[in-house]
Amino acid sequence: MKNPRKKENPDSQRSLFGEILDWMLAPLLFVWPISIAFTHYFANTVASFPYDQSLREHVTALSRQIDFTGGKPHLALPGVAQLFLRSDETDSVYFHLLDSDGRLIAGDPELPVPKDFTPATGGAIQFREDEFRGQTLRVASAYVTPPSTQSVRWVLVEVGETTEKRSQLANKIIASVILPQFVIIPLAVVLVWFGLSQGLRPLTRLRDRIASRREADLSPIALGRVPEELRPLTEAFNSVLARMRQNVNAQRRFIADAAHQMRTPLTGLKTQAQLAMRESDPIELRHALRQILVGVNRASHLVDQLLALARAEASEQAEQVRIPLDLDHLLRGVVEDWVVRALEKGIDLGYEPAGTVLIQGNAFLLREMTNNLLDNALRHTPAGGRVTARAVAQGDFVLLEIEDSGVGISDEDAHKVFDRFYRVDGSDSDGSGLGLAIVREIAEVHQAAASLRPNARNAAAVESPGCTARIVFPVYRPEVPPLPEPVQTGFA
């Protein structure tokens, strides 16, 4: 059975115009019922005031007509005056006078008396709501005190009136206030909609400016006519465009450099193939084919390096999850793969174990980086030389070092060898010039720093001073969960 309550998708596209309109109209729709309730309350209060004043005057008039002649109170009010008191086209008016013993002096005996049948101080007129003959009655009452020589302690004077006129007046007040709102509120909604439409026009213009740009146009958006509220968004968009320009320019340079580098081995292959086609001597033909094989290997190596550099720069590869791994164990495995190559060149390839050295990294990229470091060291180390690999933990950092006894490097070249296709002058190596560029890219993915420096202890050696490639990684320290608190027992 499907759930009838549909959950809102947080990734769903929402209208900024509709959301602002909702936030503006929702408080209005919330306040409107409250305003109606307050209007109803104040309308009843205002409508009751003049009629309460009339009841007050009736009570005062009756109080003045009480006569205490002969020791007993009686109402000195002619019948015509009583009829005038009761005359009302809409409401019914009732009155009575009661002495302190509750005996009726004059008026309507059915008129209800107050529950607290005690005189008020100061002779103040009091009002209350009551029920009489199925109708709501507004009653005004006052206690009249006779002279002290009389036997009667006080007289209660009450005048009651039904509330039809009050209700009619309150309804007229409410209607005069509420009915215009049925015109004003829709008009306000239309004006708010129009105002939002006009207020969001700069955003629409900015959208049209961006949509009308050519695909290759990565120039920044001018901030001259951009509203202040949209300026941070536009500046952020210009920043994205600037990074895109840098990436596009880097890709163009990379493609141009790669095309230039590929042209040389391809031209050599073409020349060797043409020479081989002209040769009839088997020995010369074999020599030409051997040169073609060397050129193919060089071109293949260059392509592999280009692909490795592209993988290292790709955002998908750079964002791969890095996990804790033992750099010393990884280094040992890579060194074992290069032992045969080192023996073929007559180079002593060594590895200095250091125990467990933990970093956070991507094993595939780290192997690619170490392969390029060892390949660079073996290419620039002559036969009889040595290459040593080690991983050392020093405080908060882990050092991956590849030390060789090759031709060495100057301080000036040490800062340039990590650039693409850069080769040291006078070097007879057949490298592609991409190995150390790949190393730098992978090091940056791991928040590490790559450097190449001449060996200080071999600086005095003229023929083979050698150099050391160093990658400095941040050390990985696993978080140790806190120990559980000891359980409190009742024993001492």
Compile the SSE list and pairings:
Layout: H1 16-64, E1 66-67, E2 74-75, H2 79-86, E3 93-99, E4 104-107, E5 126-132, E6 135-144, E7 155-162, H3 164-178, H4 181-199, H5 201-211, H6 231-278, H7 282-313, H8 315-318, E8 323-326, H9 327-337, H10 339-345, E9 348-352, E10 358-361, H11 363-379, E11 386-394, E12 397-404, H12 411-414, H13 435-445, E13 449-454, E14 467-474
Parallel strand pairs: 9-11
Antiparallel strand pairs: 1-2, 3-4, 3-7, 5-6, 6-7, 8-10, 11-12, 12-14, 13-14
Helix pairs in contact: 1-3, 1-4, 6-7, 7-13, 9-11, 11-13
| Biggest pleated sheet | 5 strands, antiparallel
- Name of the level-1 CATH class of the largest domain: Alpha Beta
How many whole angstroms does the radius of gyration measure? 51 Å
Instruction: Give me the count of strands.
Output: 14
* Helical percentage: 40-55%
Instruction: List the domain count as a whole number.
Output: 3
Summed over residues and divided by their number, the pLDDT gives a mean of 79
